């Protein structure tokens, strides 16, 4: 199986890593949609949040905790948004679970 984010985790594809834990890694989005746009991923391959939550709820919690740590580290004291697109209707393009951490500007709601 060829997976872009597994390639980044393996160090085969370059990325700007900003946060790491034993089971998670976070790197800057290549095409940022906000002043801060970081992707937090589990080091193991899960297609989406539902798959990880079903397989290992504690691991899913670690991904969320890492996202909060990234927001804190990035100084997003005014607020931020966590997004995990799931499936075609949501526009998921990389089928390795990733939580987008978006912030650094006022974010409109609802998203498109
Ligand atoms: P999604 O559409 O929710 O699946 O998000 C995938 C995200 O991955 C998009 O925001 C892309 O800009 C981002 N992306 C794609 N390739 C890379 C890469 N090589 N390094 C960092 N981010 C990437
Ligand atoms: Zn993967």
The helix/strand class is: alpha+beta
Identify the strand order in the major beta sheet. Answer: 1-2-3-5-4
Rg: 13 Å
- Strand proportion, as a percent range, falls in 15-25%
Mean pLDDT across all amino acids: 97
Low-pLDDT sequence parts: none
Order of helices and strands: HEEEHHEE
Write the layout of secondary structure elements.
Layout: H1 4-9, E1 17-20, E2 24-28, E3 36-42, H2 49-55, H3 57-73, E4 80-83, E5 99-103
Antiparallel strand pairs: 1-2, 2-3, 3-5, 4-5
The structure holds adenosine monophosphate (AMP) and zinc ion.
Zinc ion binds at residues 3, 5-6, 45, 96.
List its salient traits.
112 residues; alpha+beta; five-stranded antiparallel beta sheet; 5 strands; 27% helix; binds adenosine monophosphate; binds zinc ion
Descriptive account of the structure:
The chain is of the alpha+beta class and 112 residues long. The protein contains 3 helices and 5 strands, in the order H-E-E-E-H-H-E-E. The protein has a 5-stranded antiparallel β-sheet with strand order 1-2-3-5-4, with helices on one face. Strand 2 (24-28) and strand 3 form a beta hairpin. Helix 2 packs across helix 3. It is globular. The structure holds adenosine monophosphate and zinc ion (ZN).
Structure described in brief:
This protein has helices spanning 4-9, 49-55, 57-73; strands at residues 17-20, 24-28, 36-42, 80-83, 99-103.
């Amino acid at each position: 199986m060829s997976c872009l984010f597994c390639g980044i985790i393996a160090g085969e594809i370059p990325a700007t890593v900003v946060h790491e834990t034993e089971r998670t890694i976070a790197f800057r989005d290549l095409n940022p949609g906000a002043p801060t746009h970081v992707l937090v991923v589990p080091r193991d391959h899960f297609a989406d949040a539902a798959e990880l939550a079903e397989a290992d709820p504690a691991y899913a919690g670690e991904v969320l905790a890492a996202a909060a740590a990234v927001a804190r580290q990035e100084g997003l004291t005014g607020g931020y948004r966590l997004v995990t697109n799931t499936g075609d209707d949501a526009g998921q393009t990389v089928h390795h679970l990733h939580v987008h951490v978006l912030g650094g500007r006022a974010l409109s709601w609802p998203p498109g």
